[in-house]
Amino acid sequence: MLSLRHQDAVVKLTRRGKLDWILGDSAGWREPWADKVLKVEGGRPFYHQHDLSFVANGDLMLFDNGTVGAVPPNPE
């Protein structure tokens, strides 16, 4: 897994380097990647995340900076 902070996404690659899925805001992803974006249910996607890690129970943890909060940026 890779955390792509400036793309506001976490991606999972297979051992052969093929894209498995994308976790993040679905806005802006075009084919052939759009069908790889996971659906976020409840809440909102994260923005400008960092420190991707697994905790003891196997859950994925990351810190959400929440920068701008939209794609494209949507300043307050």
Keywords:
two-stranded antiparallel ribbon, 0% helix, 76 residues, mainly beta, 30% strand, globular, three-stranded antiparallel β-sheet
- Termini distance? 32 Å
Radius of gyration from the alpha-carbon trace, in angstroms: 13 Å
Main sheet strand line-up: 1-2-3
The coarse silhouette is: globular
What would you call the structural class? mainly beta
| SSE arrangement, N to C | EEEEE
Share of helix among residues? under 10%
Strand content: 25-35%
**Unreliable residue stretches:** none
Biggest β-sheet description: 3 strands, antiparallel
Give the overall pLDDT as a whole number: 88
- β-strand number: 5
| Number of H/I helices | 0
Q: How is this structure best described in words?
A:
The chain is built from no helices and five strands. It has strands spanning 2-4, 9-13, 19-24, 50-54, 60-63. It is 0% helix and 30% strand. With 76 residues, it is mainly β. The mean pLDDT is 88. It has a three-stranded antiparallel β-sheet with strand order 1-2-3, with no helix packed on it. It is globular and about 35 Å long.
